[in-house]
Specification:
With 117 residues, the protein is mainly α. It has one domain. Helix content is 72%, strand content 0%. The chain is built from five helices and no strands. The two termini are 25 Å apart. The relative contact order is 0.19.
Length: 117
């Protein structure tokens, strides 16, 4: 049987870590002039990433000999680089590659399912 108190605590913790309301202004800036369905795709990608790491994350990190703290640092660095690219309009990686909707690469993965979650 599911303990509703524990479920509520876990839900509140993940909700605060993901902070979907902080992603709204970034999504509106990135999706300017594009289809709004990117928000649905970003949430779907975030859910897939969360569930994948929920069920397979520990085994995956163990298989590649990656510690959790180093994974958090790497995720923070990637988030910082994407933030610099978004705010300053710079290309850190150098060569522009063809991407899908920016919501998938900016909102879905690093913003909603970042190093904290």
């Amino acid at each position: 049987m599911i303990d509703l108190g524990e479920f509520a605590k876990a839900f509140a913790t993940i909700f605060v870590i993901m902070d979907p309301f902080a992603s709204i202004p970034i999504f509106l800036k990135v999706a300017r002039g594009r289809e709004v369905r990117g928000a649905t795709q970003a949430v779907l990608i975030a859910a897939i990433v969360l569930f994948a790491f929920l069920f397979f994350g520990h085994a995956l990190l163990k298989a590649f000999h990656i510690t959790l703290s180093s994974f958090k640092v790497a995720g923070g660095l990637i988030l910082g680089i994407l933030g610099v690219e978004l705010v300053l309009g710079m290309e850190v990686a150098g060569k522009e590659i063809e991407r899908g909707h920016p919501a998938l690469t900016l909102i879905g993965t690093p913003m909603l399912t970042g190093p904290g979650s």
